[in-house]
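[[Per-residue structure]]
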Amino acid sequence: MAVDYRTLSFWHATVPDDLSPRVSLDGDLDVDVAIVGGGLTGLWTAWYLKERDPALNIVVLEKEIVGFGASGRNGGWCSALFPRSTASLERSYGREAALAMRRAMIATVDEVGTAAASAGIEIDYVKGGTLSYARSGVQLAAARAEVAEAAEYGIDPLELRGPQPAAGAIGASFDPNCASIHPAKLVRGLARALEQRGVVIYEQTEVLDFSPRSVTKAQGTVTKAPRTVTTTRGVVRCDTVVVALEGYGATLPVTKRRVLPLYSLMIATEPLEDSLWDEIGIEHGQTFADYRHLLIYGQRTADNRFAFGGRGARYHWGSSIKPEYDRSPRVFEHLRKTLGELFPMIGDVTVAHRWGGPLGVARDWHASASFDPTTGIAWAGGYVGDGLSTTNLAGRTLADLITGADSELLRLPWVNHASPLWEPEPLRFLGANAGLAAMSIADSEERVTSRPSVTAKLMGRLTGH
């Protein structure tokens, strides 16, 4: 049955694109680079590879359409957030490496806007920063600690703000390093710009497997056979393959335990009047969250809606990904209730769109960008929901790794980081869902005790905070 791609999300419903699938691969093919996955990791990698070497013959292989997954469905935060905190990176790699990673993420927020503009893509980019509300004494202490830590590192101009009555907050932090965008406009526009540069995109072409480059040594000679990507439509032979599947990597046997697909769900309201937004106190381009442990996130869209999401949907056995998992009435009801609790002045405003999808989580909550020149395999992912900006940094990094360029990016601590594999079932199922439950418990614990959650502290050791 044909998929109505308009129904995937609010972003897909409003992108200026008919979403008609491109042609599929038709037979075997020989190229320089084969990119598996038509999301932002793969497209940004193709973009920067073409900048470094315009002669490269590059194809993108996508099972559905470009932007089908998290790249087209996310919260629209182009932020400087990285899954592991600066403090955690400092403990693992040292202070200078941690600060370099933070500087690179901050610069990436601007790079996304600059690159989109250079490609002639209108993505509703407005760098309005992020307001994080503190709605209790415990949350205010967390905000103060975060601002103090940022000041100690001396990179982030994070600031503490006073009460935010509209959100029932006794204080807030403000981070200027975030832009709101329309993610489907970015990913769809980037695909069109790549085609103008000669990159070929095959859609409705499912990748079944890929094999590393084989090397044969005989009688003093070394023969390198190309690596192969096997699809439902033919075999692609290439020098380099870029695996850019994020949460959907769990659908391939070779990468099944490398990432865990964790679902995040969203709602979008009908547009609100400017006068109501003035009362709410959120400007165009601003994103918002608070200091609860079960994550929520939102933005004011270009057409004056709330686009609001959060975690809470359970992990499914065997890392399975199915269309029916994109929608959970229980989670949607929770999101609408939470949005009303944050901003009671919105009254009974209608929820016009409901959607969701899987993001990718590495076992140690550590995103990475890696390339093995021996096998010809490149990979990036494990963004834990922070991928709208991090995919761009990944694309630049992989392009440098693949072409052999020497850049400061290659000295960042996430380059060639190898995360442990996720445990086999049933341990993966039990652990992932226990972690989600623990975040809810942590929020309840803080409401009851008015003290920082012990449960959250224990979980923080597992999630890099």
